[in-house]
Amino acid sequence: MPALIVLGAQWGDEGKGRVVDLLAAEAQVVARYQGGHNAGHTVVVGERTLKLHQIPSGITRPGVLCVIGNGTVLEPLALVQEMDEVAGLGFDLEALRISRAAQLILPYHQALDQAQEAGRGAAAIGTTGRGIGPAYTDKAARSGLRAEELLNFDRFAARFRQAAAAKNEVLTRVYGQPALDIEAMLAQLQPAAARLAPHVADTSLLVHRALAQGQRVLFEGAQGTLLDIDHGTYPFVTSSNPTAGGACVGVGVAPRAINGVLGVVKAYTTRVGAGPFPSERCDEVGEHLVQMGAEFGTTTGRRRRCGWLDTVIVRYAARLSGFSGLAVTKLDVLSGLPALRICTGYRCGGAVSEDWVPVGYALDDCEPVYEDLPGWSESLRDVRRWEDLPPAARRYVERLEALAGVPVDLISVGPEREQLIVRRNPWDVMRET
Ligand code: GDP
């Protein structure tokens, strides 16, 4: 019963969507385990470009069961809109299932998120303002509404009115914002609830049964390791656990059911929003990466901060999630840079550390330590075999592999499905072990 987790090894936007899209071709179930519609995956299928936020990337593969797990937070209005877009592109939504226990992001969460972020002033953490943090806050406070409530709209409405009235108090008294119109929000939510209700299910049981029947289940992480609320660059993090442990909690499967963990690593480093970023480059190298890598957010359109590959981070991610393999994405973006650098450690107060420095702010006092490697000028976009990569590109990947201590299974050299070099099929590796 092969179960494979795919997750981001850096600060998100590693290209997980296209890796999941590829692996879903051989899976029977794809499950999202955390995050909300702040996540954004771009999947290119021939002429069609899907921008997915809440729907698992497996939706592009007919017959694959797509699960929105209990560990996610889901925005009903946005999900219905996304379903319309996906259906409009000709993909079938019959196999979409929503966990009964997934928390709902409601309009007041979004209003609160934006008011809170504005209130932070210079200490803003760069949230997407979509209500993710406040929805997870309500989950932890045990006052959230869950997807199962959509099955009985009268009961939902009663609970919603009570919760929204309490949020209006906070919005008006604490943040000086206008109160939200509760009945207008309910009128918007009712058709969305009716649309989503048939998709609500006991998804933990569905996944358990699939595994028991020997089916392949892919667990799809959103964001990335350094955005993990416990292990990331707190407070510049997301409100959930993208690391591998989050997959078990967020779908309702036992750790013993997991057979493999694939870490997705961009060939350089990017992050969106504020927070520490030791190998950031604000010069022509950063500009090359932004322009050649089209580093603008799928969800927000925000320009991403860019810098050299940091293997301290990748090693840290491998330790936290137990990577069995790596998928390296966007290697093609490095073409044309005459010299490359890989960050291998940090010099903090005289001593060099090769381990991640877990205190977010302390990183500001650390200098990255670099290893220099030769670049290559050739385009990689048409390369499909490892042997056909320029020697400098192979050497770069081999250094990443050695420094991370994890084998590189997949290398992507462009956004299209076929722009890929497969060294080991992650599903086959699991069959062998
Ligand atoms: P995700 O959230 O981790 O899936 O990442 P995003 O979708 O936000 O960002 C990845 C972007 O890079 C998307 O626009 C992809 O189409 C694109 N992409 C993925 N792999 C490659 C690659 O190997 N080369 C290039 N040039 N673009 C890629």
Oligomer: single chain
* Total E-strand runs: 20
Largest sheet: 10 strands, mixed
Portion of residues within helices: 25-40%
Let me know the average pLDDT: 92
Strand order of the largest sheet: 9-7-5-2-10-1-11-15-19-20
Shape: globular
| Unreliable residue runs | none
Task: Tell me the strand percentage band.
Answer: 15-25%
Question: In angstroms, what is the radius of gyration?
Answer: 22 Å
What structural category arises from helix and sheet content?
A: alpha/beta
What hetero molecules are in the model?
guanosine-5'-diphosphate
**How many angstroms separate the termini?**
12 Å
Describe the model:
The chain has 433 residues and is α/β, with parallel strands linked by helices. The chain contains twelve helices and 20 strands. It has helices at residues 16-23, 76-88, 107-119, 132-140, 153-174, 182-196, 203-212, 244-251, 284-292, 311-321, 391-404, 426-432, and strands at 3-8, 29-32, 41-45, 48-52, 65-68, 73-74, 96-99, 103-104, 200-201, 217-220, 260-266, 269-271, 305-307, 309-310, 325-329, 339-348, 351-353, 366-374, 408-412, 420-422. It has a ten-stranded mixed sheet with strand order 9-7-5-2-10-1-11-15-19-20, sandwiched between helices. Strands 14, 16, 17 and 18 form a four-stranded mixed sheet that branches. Strands 3-4 form a two-stranded antiparallel sheet. A hairpin with a 2-residue loop joins strand 3 and strand 4. Helix 3 (107-119) crosses helix 4 and helix 5 crosses helix 6. The longest helix is centred in the middle third of the chain and has 22 residues, at 153-174. The mean pLDDT is 92. The chain binds guanosine-5'-diphosphate.
